[in-house]
Predict the structure.
Amino acid sequence: MSNRSRLTTRVVLTVIVVAGLAIDAYVHFHLASAFKHNKTSTLSETELFRAEAVAAIVAALALLLRPRRYTAAFAFLVAAAGTVAVVVYRYVNVGKIGPIPNMYDPYWLPTGKTLSLVAEAVAAVAALALVAMFSGRTTRLVAPNRTAVQSPG
């Protein structure tokens, strides 16, 4: 793969991850207040939804500002955790876990949960592909004077 096509692939994957995390953040901020009554003495589901939204924003900004393997890995963890959480709490009544309230919700909202699930899953796959791209061996470019130069990235 040429350096130009590799760069294009990285940019496209980054845009996909950032868009997926932005959708994730929007949906979680939008739905957070609907779950304010589901709480323990320590945490509410609203607070957990807002924390997920903030984590998605931080991961997206980190990837945009510093596109590296570790920021792609962080974006993957945020998106994958969101994907797993929505699927588990949709199909399994886990119950209350310590300070975390029982978030079992077997109903799918037409736009909210489904949109969030798709965005998180696509972002997770794209972020994992970015991790793999950043983990690849660095290629060497040969400058006109035939000196090997470390390529950026």
About this structure: Confidence is low (pLDDT under 50) at residues 139-143.
